[in-house]
Amino acid sequence: MKKVATLLLSTLLASPLAMAADYTLRFSHFWPANSGIHQGFEEWGLSLKAASGGRLQVEFYPAQTLTKAPQSYDGVKMGIADITATVQGYTANRFPLTQIMELPGMVDSAVHGSCVLQSLFDEGLITKEYDDTQVLYLFTHGPGYLHTRDKAIASPDDLAGLKIRRPTTVVAQLLESQGAQPVGMPAPETYPSLQRGVLDGVAFPWEAMKVFRTNEQADYHTEVNLYTLSFMVTMNKRVYNGMPEDLKAVLAEHSGKEWSQKLAQVFDELDRAGRAEAVDAGHQLVPVQQADWQPVFEQSRQAYLSGLEKRRLPANQVYQRALELADACRT
Predict the structure, then answer these.
(1) How far apart are the first and last CA of the chain?
(2) Residues of the signal sequence (predicted)?
(3) What Cα–Cα distance (Å) separates residue 30 from each residue in 66, 68, 96, 141, 193?
(4) Using N-to-C axis directions, what is the helix angle for 110-122 and 257-280, rounded to 10°?
(5) What CATH architecture is 144-228+286-307?
(6) Is domain 19-141+230-271 classified as CATH 3.40.190.170?
(7) Cβ(270)–Cβ(209) below 8 Å
(8) How far is CA 191 from CA 67, 150, 269, in A?
(9) 241-268: per-residue pLDDT in tens?
């Protein structure tokens, strides 16, 4: 019996998946550990481990436990984390061409937007913005809407005087132009802020309304395609460059469009669940006249693009290509 046990133990230790990993990669993000988004990242980590024969292992730090959301990108750059999933717009002015994706009405769904964003990166139109890290894949959530606690927003005029959580400066400029008070705040902090009246509403996709439980605090939902947020999964360059070529190849197999689309599918599923949750709770879905919002949206687009052009950035070129890709990604 002792010989059998010894044989089993030696066989287990000889198995590649049982061996200690060559690299244990610390992955930091701000979504809750029980969210579908975190589970999507875990699936990626398990696939990476299997494909590398156990030589790559991912250790997850969800819910801002390793780096706070606004500092996540710098945290990876400095080596506090090895990998992060975060929002480009949380790092102001670093990803201005990427944030063209945030302009109103750009995408129809997370799958659609992620196809556009990853394609812009793969074509080299926005790659220079990420020179200080090793990008694995990019994706977006679906359309972001307005969700308010005490007042229905039917037209842009209804925004005046309201304190609305804005995800990034692009959305802040749009809200401010209509007399709202945009409040910068990471998504995990919105629930208590709505509860205490610090916020009157949030700009969120339906996914975030479910994941961060903000459907419990906002009863009015205005489904106007206000913005779309870009996300990245990116890695510390020093750690990446120190890996042998075969492990870099495994990472390459787990980068790009395939995993961009897998995460996008999770977002779209959560969008459907978040909307259904609000409907089942008897919330008011506010009717919207798209024509009332189009002048505001056009003003926002032109202001953002012209601002980048003044900085000698090819904003109009990237925007036009994004529109072309948006058509291509619908087919």
Answers:
(1) 62
(2) 1-20
(3) 9, 7, 22, 15, 17
(4) 160
(5) 3-Layer(aba) Sandwich (3.40)
(6) yes
(7) no
(8) 20, 15, 21
(9) 999 999 999 999 999 999 999 999 999 9
Domain assignments of the chain as residue spans, ordered by start: 19-141+230-271, 144-228+286-307
With b meaning 16 or more CB within 10 Å and e meaning fewer, what string describes 71-108? bbbbbbbeebbbbbbbbbbbbeeebbbbbbbbbbbbbe
Establish whether domains 19-141+230-271 and 144-228+286-307 are of one fold: yes
Half-sphere exposure of 1 (CA within 13 A, CB side): 0
pLDDT of residue 145: 98
CA-closest candidate to residue 140, choices 124, 106, 169, 117? 117
pTM score, two decimals? 0.92
Q: Is 255 helix (H, G, I), strand (E, B) or coil?
A: coil
Spatial distance between the Cα atoms of 230 and 113, rounded to a whole number of angstroms: 9
